[in-house]
Amino acid sequence: MAVYSKKETRKAPSNVKGLTFWLRENLFSSPFNVALTLLGVMLLVWVIPPFVKWAYLDANFAGSTREDCTGGGACWVFIRMKIDMFMYGFYPSEFRWRVNTVYGLFLVLVAAFRYLKSPVLKIVLAHVYFIAGFILVHGGLAGLEVVPTDKWGGLMLTIMVAAVGIVSAFPLGVILALGRASHLPIIRSLSVTYIEFIRGVPLITILFMSSVILPLFFPEGMNFDKLLRALIGIAMFEAAYIAENIRGGLQSIPKGQYEAADAIGLSYWQKMFLVILPQALKVAIPNLVGVSIALFQDTTLVLIIGLFDLLAMVRLSAADSYWLGYETEGYVFVTFIFWFFCYMMSNFSQKLEKRFNTNLRK
Amino acid sequence: MKERKEIIEIKNLNKWYGDFHVLKEVNLTVKTGEIIVVCGPSGSGKSTLIRCINYLEQFQEGSISVEGIDLVNDVKKIKAIREEVAMVFQHFNLFPHLTILDNLTLAPIWVKKMPRKEAEAMAMKYLERVGIANQANKYPNQLSGGQQQRVAIARALCKNPKIMLFDEPTSALDPEMVAEVLDVMIELAKEDKTMVCVTHEMGFAKKVADRIIFMDAGQIVEENTPEEFFQHPESERLKLFLEQILSH
C-alpha cells in the first residue's frame, strides 16, 4: 500500500520548435510531400509573376482613352471609364447619390445592429431599411423622381437581387421547414411537394417561368414589373433550399429539448421560436451562408430575362466597339468583385458561428 | 396528519407502443403533499407512467385527472395541467443556447406573462436555494452534471408547480454528484409540494417517501410505506429486486 503526495501543476511544455522544424514537419516530411511541395512552388512561380506583370507592372492605370493603353499589359483605363456602368447600370447619373445613400444607410444599419439588444427592434429597423432603400432607389415618393426598374443594373442590381432574394426567402424557408417537420399530414405533404418540386427545377427555368408564363395568368394589359417577377421567382426558389438546410438543423435537436419545452408549458410556436429554431439555425449557419453565396453568384442568371447585372454590364461594355478587346480586364474585375463579396459572406458566417457558440467549456 | 385531497388520480391506465403493452391497468392516487417513489427494473414502465401525467406520452385507455382536470387530447387542458406539473428529466434537458438565468425565466415570461425583472428576481431566489446563484450568467455546458440538474430543478420550481415529477434525476450523474442533487430534493420534500419520483436511490426513498411503488412489466406489483416495503416485501419479484439492488 502506498499514499502519494500531491503533485504540483506545471505549465505545458512550449510547442514552438522553430522554423526548420515546422518546414520539415509540414512540407518535407516524406518523399511524396517533398514532391508535392516542389510542384506547388513550381505552379506558383509559373502563375504569379506573369499575372503581376500583366496586371500591375505592364498595366496602364492613367488616361481616359484607348490610346493611353501602351504598356502591353492590362488596360485598367477601360474599367475606370466604365466603372459607373458596372456599378449602376443605366441608372441616371444625377440620381446616383440615392443609391449611394442606400449603401451608406447599410453601414448605419450594421452599426445599429451592434448596439441594439431587442430582436423586435432589429427586425423593425431592418424592415424600415428595406422600405426606405426601395423608396430611395425607385423614387416616386417624397419628391424623388421615379427611376424605372429597367434602368437599374450593374453591381447595384446584383446586390439588390441577392439581398432581397435571401431576406424574403428566409421566412418562407423557415415556415416550409417547420411544415415539413409537422405532425399534420396535409401541411407536411404540401411542404414536401413544394420543396421537392422547386429543388427538381433549375433556377433558370424558374426565372423563365416567372417572366414568360406568370404574365399569362394575369388579366390582359396588367403589367407586372419584370424585376419584381424575377425576385419572386428567386425568393420561391431559394426558400426551398433554405428550408432543407433548416430541416437538417431541426433534425440535430435532441428529443429532450422538445419535451422540456413542452413540460414547462410553452405553446407550439413558443417552443419552436424560443427553443428549437435558435438551436437549429445555429447548426444550419454554414449551410445557410453557403446557399446565400450560391445565390449571389446565381444572380448572374437574370441576364437571360433581360436584366443587366454586373456580369451582363461588363459583357455589354466589352462589346462596345471603341473598347473592343478588353473583356479580359472586365472579367478579372468581375471575378475580383464576386470573390470579395463571397469572401465577406463566408467570413461573416464564421463570425456568426463564434458569436452563437454557447457550447463553452469551463 | 390533516385530511388531504386527491391531486392525481390515475384509473385503469393502459398504454401500448405499437403492439407492446407498456402500462397494464395502472391505478394510482396521489394526495396533496405526498411523496411517492416509483421504482422497478428497467423497462417496467415507470418512466412512461410519470410521463403520462404531464402528457409527454399519450395513453390509449383509462383516465388521468390532475387537480380535477381530466387529461384528454385538448390543447387547453394539456396547457392547464402543464401549468401545475413540472418535470425534472434524467438528462436535465436544459436549453443550451440560453444562459442559466434565461433557462429559468423562459416559462415565467412567456407562459405566465410575468415582467422580466420580477421573473429574474424569482429565478435568482430559486438558484440560491439550489446553491448556484453565482452561475446565473453561464451557459449550461459550462456546468457540471450535478449543477445542471440543480438548475433543472430550479427551472421546474420557477413554475411554482403543485406537483413535481422526477424522471430518474440522478441516474445520469457521476457518483460524487448524486448527493448534491438528492440534498436539494430532500429539502423540497420538506415542503408541501407533491412529488412523484422515479428513482433507484433507496436511501432517498427510505428517508422521505410516504409511499413506495414497485412496478414490473407494466404494472404496479406492490405499494407500501417505506418500512414495510423494505422490511416485509411480499411479492417474489420485489424480494429479488431488493436483494439485487441492496446487496452491494
Structure overview:
The complex is a heterodimer of chains A (362) and B (248). Chain A has 362 residues and is mainly α. Chain A folds into two domains: 69 residues, no CATH class; 201 residues, MetI-like fold (Orthogonal Bundle). In chain A, 68% of the residues lie in helices and 1% in strands. Chain A has 13 helices and one strand, in the order H-H-H-H-H-H-H-H-H-H-H-E-H-H. In chain A, helix 4 runs antiparallel to helix 5 and helix 12 runs antiparallel to helix 13. The radius of gyration of chain A is 27 Å and the shape is globular. The two termini of chain A are 35 Å apart. The mean pLDDT of chain A is 88. Chain B has 248 residues and is α/β, with parallel strands linked by helices. In chain B, a hairpin with a 2-residue loop joins strand 9 and strand 10. In chain B, helix 3 packs across helix 4. Chain B is globular. The two termini of chain B are 36 Å apart. The mean pLDDT of chain B is 91. Classes of the chains: A mainly alpha (362), B alpha/beta (248). At the A-B interface, helix 10 and helix 11 of A face helix 2, strand 6 and helix 3 of B.
